Amino acid sequence: MGDRALAHIEKIINTYPIDGADNIEMAQVLDFHVVVKKGEFKVGDLAVYIEIDSIVPDGLPAEYNEQYIEKRAKRKSASEDDQINIEKEIAEIVSHNTRPEFEFLRSKHFKIKAMKYSRFGIISQGILFKTDILPADIQPKVELDVTEILGITREIEDPDDAPAIPRSAFHRYMMKYKWFRKYFGNKKKNPGGWLSYFPSPSDETNVQKIYSKLYDQYKDEEFYVSEKMEGQSLSIFLKKDKGFLWFKKDKFGVCSRTQIKKQHCGFIETANRLELEKKLRKINKSIFVRGEHCGGKIQGNIYKFPETKFLVFEVYDFDEKRFYTYDELKEFCITYEFDMVPILDEHFKLLDNSQDILKMSNGKSVYANVLREGIVIRLKRDVKVSFKARSPEYLIKHGK
Q: Among 151, 174, 246, 363, which is 20 to 30 Å from 398 by CA?
């Protein structure tokens, strides 16, 4: 739970060849398998692993960026001889990039996505760099979060979920200096008002990141599997006031993944249409209900829902300071007439490895004849023990 590390230091635990490939091979960190140049890494090396959904910084100053765009546009209509000269000019322009290690990602808008190598029948998720891309004063160690140090941000598909205070290009550049990181590195503010008694913002951990550890600890326990819906995180809450009689003032609110929504928007529109405040007040408890907001224009509405839906996947009790177990969650949704995310398996035991889980994540959605985004697997007795498996087929088809 909570905002995940997008870039972190990990140890290479395996390298292996790709059938038919001469210049590339696979390297494994945690349970992620990534295409790398042959011989670039060896087992035991530390490397910077950057996950999909990340955006690495463009270190090309604005004036050079404008020149680059101009030259690229000019090249399209130039003669063959002129194209050669323009290529040289472009090479000179990009030589001014202060983050040259990321320059090769310019054509991909600096986004890290899953890559399918159809010729070899493999999928690479994420990217690996040598640790020398880190500032000189950083001592690499396993699991070190270097997201902010490298100026890496998360791709935001939903504008309502954008960070309250985005990092500027200047801030990202200055993060390479130790003194700047010390005084300005972790001063995250949230004008949206994510309250101290709220559970952390939702963000399930990728299966490849934690599966080996979870398997050893929980292989004999029962989990449940739900479909990972393509939508937005939407939460509603009611905080009961313990004041006296007419001085009591209960607090109701609607939230996106990280912010309480103050002004009218799609989240509040859905909450009003489904009378979610009325439902919570009937329950008469201090409670936080989180679910997936789907339909309408959200993420292209791949399910073709005629109206937006609120599909619950978590309930948190403010007074008891805990999440409901699966059985409690199911009873809650039935009793108070909330729709629940589709449940695919109520009695699931962990498979031997994460690759089998990833294969299992492929498939059709419960709601439509489309590829599902993936699955979420949670421990029935403690839903905080959970992870997501994003369908490789879905990621490739939708360019994610």
A: 151
